[in-house]
Structures are given as C-alpha cells and as structure tokens.
Amino acid sequence: MGTRTGPGSWARPDPRSEKAAIRHVWKHLRARGYTVRSKEREICGYDLHATHGTEELHVEVKGCAGSMARFFLSRTERNAGKDDPDWRLVVVTNASSRPNATRFLRYREVERVFDLEPTQWEGRSKSGL
C-alpha cells in the first residue's frame, strides 16, 4: 500500500513506510554512536532525539513508499525547523523495501531542496458562527 500521487490527489502518509523510515534512521544514528530516544508520541516537531557527546540532533523523519520524496510537514514541525538549530529532516524513500535516506537537512536546506506548499487551511469562526 503506497500513496496516491496523481494531480489533485491527497497523498496520505503510509504508516508502514513511516515506521520503516524511523527504524532505518534510528539504526543509522546508533551505528554512528548516537544515543537515540523516540519523541514520536510527543508533539514537539521531531521524531527522534539523538545525542553523541555534546552534539544533539532533533530529527524529523519522513517515510515515502516509493522513490519520490513527497511528504507533509506540520506547522509544529515547520516551526521547530525554523527555530531549533539542532532540528534536521531526513526523508527516506522506498522506506518499506530498499530504504534510501537523503542527508540530514537543516530547515534552510529543506526550503532550498523542496517546494513547500500549503495543501489546506483551517477555518475558524470570527464571530461565534
């Protein structure tokens, strides 16, 4: 099961790809000597908290079922990326089959490498409607 990617389609994240991507990045970090903790259940703007000596990384992981890097970034994740110098984004393509991770990107690199476009807006009543 992958994501629909045609024109105008809503490409929902594939939960299996997301989990596989997190496992892949977790193993990658551990192999490089990092201590890794999950932050997935917290709404803090990233999935993994990694430390290695005095270095700290706050890693947001995006898993893609196919070879195209396409993902959704929440407002919380975006704000964390903009405000937190330790924040990194890792996009894992073919996450469930042959994981291929891009670099650990800082937010300014994310804006340079990816087209970020709002896909929906929240409407709130201004006058108690």
Sum up the structure in keywords.
129 residues, alpha+beta, Trna Endonuclease, Chain: A, domain 1, 5-stranded mixed β-sheet, 5 strands, globular
Structural commentary:
The protein is of the alpha+beta class and 129 residues long. It has one domain: Trna Endonuclease, Chain: A, domain 1 (3-Layer(aba) Sandwich). The chain has helices at residues 15-31, 75-83, 107-113, and strands at residues 35-38, 48-52, 55-63, 87-93, 100-101. A five-stranded mixed beta sheet has the order 1-2-3-4-5. α2 (75-83) links the parallel β3 (55-63) and β4 (87-93). The longest helix is centred in the N-terminal third of the chain and has 17 residues, at 15-31. The protein is globular and about 55 Å long.
Short structural summary:
The chain is of the alpha+beta class and 129 residues long.
* CATH fold-level name: Trna Endonuclease, Chain: A, domain 1
Secondary-structure element string: HEEEHEEH
Low-confidence stretches: 1-5
**Major sheet details:** 5 strands, mixed
Number of helical stretches of at least 4 residues: 3
Mean pLDDT: 90
Distance between the termini: 40 Å
User: What level of helicity do the residues show?
Assistant: 25-40%
Instruction: Please count the beta strands (DSSP E, at least 2 residues each).
Output: 5
- The CATH class assignment is Alpha Beta
How many structurally independent domains? 1
Shape type: globular
Structural class based on helices, strands and sheet pairing = alpha+beta
Radius of gyration: 16 Å
CATH architecture: 3-Layer(aba) Sandwich
What proportion of the residues form beta strands (DSSP E)?
A: 15-25%
Cross-sheet strand order for the largest sheet: 1-2-3-4-5
